[in-house]
Amino acid sequence: MVSPLTKLPLDAYVPILKGKAAELGAVSTAPKERLVPLLEFIDPVKASSALPKAWNTADGAVWVQMLNVEGINDPKFAGQIADFFDRVREKVCAVPVVTTTETPDTFSAIASVIAKDGRGVILRIDVEDLIDSEVNTADDITAVLEQLNIASSQVALVVDGGTLTGSQTIQATLAIQALSALNLREWMSVVLSFSAFPEELGKVAARNSVTPIPRVDAKTFVTVRNKMEGSLIYGDYAVGTPRYGSAPFAPIPNIRYATNDAWQVHRGGKRSSPSTQYVALAKDIVNASYYGGKNFSPADQKLNDVASKVGGPGNATIHLRIAASRHLHLVLWRLANLGAP
């Protein structure tokens, strides 16, 4: 388990995940020794019951960010944040995540949580802000530390390149520029994250196809790490994207299967008859050369069960959970055994 207020080991992994059923289900079955999920929630009340079920340990740190996407008035939302940490305090080792743009009420609530828990805080900053000449990020960071009454040595920094676009070279160059504006040794840990899975799968993966989508996020991280001094920790958005939203209708059945250098996306042909398609897609994966074997992870076992009809065919949520679970296990294995995500 990774304790709060300790430097993350080099083979730690910080996936940035939505606090939804599929992602929480994947976290619940993942090895927790070097995993530090950053979970985004939009409902602090529901999160207080959902998080302890997914992260059922009080020993390892889990990073929690509350997003006010519903436009709740500032004092009420800040109160909900404080109440969330009160509710989960004895159940999970939750560490708050903030940005430089929180409201004064939220900063006040988080400052109280920090003082009460003594677990430090996570500061999340976009790469774009660090390279934008019109944004004084240094002053913004100083202001955050003052409002939270905390030293940078008790802060883990998440440098988020999730919204960057362009080639691996372009993203790496921008990330290096952003990191060069920081004193990396000043912080407890520094996480660098990217996102590579497409927001609209239908634009890159045709129906009735198997499409490899390169894991550019992992490759870009390695490029940056090799050119920077200091210890960078790997983060990504797994098989998700930075955008927080929901589809208006059920997607065409698809299974996203993480491999060493790509996601192999097996996609069906229509929205109707999803059960039959999920079974066929699972069969294709377990018969593929890149299948990891049913003993590699719970996700691989589940795919084998679906393919052999030992269990049910699943649905979109179940298969997103399977995809995320497989991804988490693979990245953790690669970091531990190969030193690269």
Describe the fold and architecture:
By secondary structure, the protein is an alpha/beta fold. It has eleven helices and eleven strands. The strands form two sheets. It has an eight-stranded parallel beta barrel, surrounded by five helices. Strand 2 (38-41), helix 2 and strand 3 (61-66) form a beta-alpha-beta unit.
Element layout with pairings:
Layout: E1 13-18, H1 21-28, E2 38-41, H2 44-54, E3 61-66, H3 74-88, E4 93-98, H4 104-117, E5 121-126, H5 127-131, H6 137-148, E6 155-161, H7 168-180, E7 189-194, E8 209-214, H8 216-227, E9 232-236, E10 254-258, E11 262-267, H9 274-286, H10 298-308, H11 316-338
Parallel strand pairs: 1-2, 1-9, 2-3, 3-4, 4-5, 5-6, 6-7, 7-9
Antiparallel strand pairs: 8-11, 10-11
Decide which structural class fits the backbone.
alpha/beta
Strand order of the largest sheet: 1-2-3-4-5-6-7-9
Number of helices: 11
Largest sheet: 8 strands, parallel, barrel
Q: Outline, from the CA principal axes?
A: globular
Mean pLDDT: 96
User: How much helix is in the residues?
Assistant: 40-55%
- The radius of gyration is 20 Å
The count of β-strands is: 11
Low-confidence stretches: none
List keywords for this structure.
three-stranded antiparallel sheet, globular, 11 strands, alpha/beta, 341 residues
How would you sum up this structure in a few lines?
The chain has 341 residues and is α/β, with parallel strands linked by helices. The chain has eleven helices and eleven strands. The chain has an eight-stranded parallel barrel with strand order 1-2-3-4-5-6-7-9, surrounded by five helices. A three-stranded antiparallel sheet has the order 8-11-10.
